[in-house]
Specification:
By secondary structure, the protein is mainly α. The protein contains 14 helices and 2 strands, in the order ααααβαβααααααααα. α3 packs parallel to α6, α5 (129-141) packs parallel to α10 and α11 (318-324) packs across α12 (334-344).
């Protein structure tokens, strides 16, 4: 017994030391244990990523869709929104402009070399061979077609046919870029509206700030309009100075040119006038096209703004909850509500949602209702076998 008592007495200090170390360790863990996230942050985190997904900041935001996802992820973690940076959109815009300029230069260079190498003959009022070739290429590409210079031989006519369709292809690429620009603007506006509705506390104040998108569209349209007026004035001055036209004839030819009508009764006939026209015709037609693009953007921005405000601010009714309840459990989760609102503003269709749910069900191998790394690995192995 004495030996046992001695052993027990020897263990008491050791146990006390372990308890003290355990308490100290628990205190350290308690100090470094992350505080629980607010309910809204936890819900939004579930919307922005699944449990097995990496943080969205690791995704390379090389596309507008990934940039919007990164924007939502910042809000989900309670971070303030990044200041509106003009460099991302302008960078993309400058890249498109740079590619268009390169394509244009190649197009004009090929046309110019072809005129000299193939000895293509043009019929009409001639000035300088180089100036006439560039002038004819610009008039052809912009579909102005004055008719003051026309191909004369069979080879020249065949080359012109190929040259015209190549120019049409270049214009088509530019127009498709303009259409994509409008679509991206609509998507951006909708994401901002959802962000302001569910991520911000000062709701009314931020809505006023968001109206700056519409104001910015109006300003861009105004700047493009000023550029159009400047091209009108420059064109009329050049026609009156170098071509000796009257004010009415100059205004008439400018209108016919920038709208690419090109009736042919009036045109640039002097060498100085054609040198000016090489740069002016291209820039003026692009400015007019850009003005109408911004005009369409402004109208679309206003309409999309109104639709988003109506969809996000109208009172939610019991019938809305019933329609938003996708799984029929009698309650509507945040994800179901967001999907319902997106369908309401016409950004996604029911067929899109069903396709996504089918893909989710195919990945959810254990039918747990959630996705993890093992689900992805198993589904990959099943596909390979």
């Amino acid at each position: 017994m004495d030996s046992n008592d001695g052993a027990s007495d020897g263990l008491h200090p050791l146990l006390e030391n372990c308890r003290e170390q355990g308490s100290l360790m628990e205190g350290l863990l308690e100090d470094h244990r992350p505080s629980p996230k607010p309910l809204r942050s936890r819900i939004l985190s579930r919307l922005c990523r699944v449990r097995s997904a990496p943080p969205l900041e690791t995704i390379n935001a090389s596309s507008p869709q990934q940039s919007r996802i990164k924007h939502l992820n910042r809000a989900a973690r309670g971070l303030p929104p990044p200041p509106p940076s003009p460099f991302q959109e302008e960078g993309e815009g400058m890249s498109t402009i740079f590619k268009a300029i390169i394509a244009l230069l190649i197009y004009l260079l090929v046309g110019l070399l072809s005129f000299f190498m193939l000895e293509i003959e043009l019929e009409g009022t001639a000035t300088s061979a180089t100036v006439d070739a560039l002038y004819f290429a610009i008039v052809t590409m912009t579909t102005v077609g004055y008719g003051d210079l026309v191909p004369k031989t069979v080879g020249a006519k065949l080359f012109t046919c190929a040259f015209v369709f190549t120019g049409f292809g270049l214009v088509g690429v530019l127009l498709s870029g303009a259409a994509n620009y409008l679509v991206e603007k609509q998507e951006k506006l909708l994401v901002q509206k959802i962000y302001l509705k569910y991520m911000r506390k000062e709701h009314k104040k931020e809505l006023v700030v968001d109206d700056d998108e519409v104001v910015a569209a109006h300003w861009k349209m105004l700047v493009a309009g000023v550029a159009v007026v400047a091209h009108f004035v420059a064109g009329m001055f050049a026609l009156m100075w170098w071509e000796g036209m009257s004010f009415i004839d100059g205004f008439y030819l400018v209108c016919v040119t920038v709208t690419t009508l090109g009736y042919g009764d009036r045109s640039f006939r002097t060498q100085a006038g054609r040198i000016f026209a090489i740069f002016w015709i291209l820039s003026s037609t692009l400015c007019v096209a850009q003005f109408f693009l911004y005009l369409a953007e402004s109208r679309t921005e206003e309409r999309q703004h109104e639709i988003a405000c109506w969809a996000l601010h109208r009172p939610t009714t019991p019938s809305d909850l019933e329609a938003a309840d996708m799984d029929g459990d009698g309650v509507v989760s945040a994800a179901e509500f967001v999907i319902f609102k997106l369908k309401e503003v016409g950004k996604i269709a029911e067929e899109d949602v069903q396709d996504i749910l089918k893909e989710f069900a195919a990945l959810d191998y254990d039918e747990s209702g959630t996705l993890n790394v093992s689900d992805i690995h198993i589904s990959t192995l099943v596909k390979e076998t």
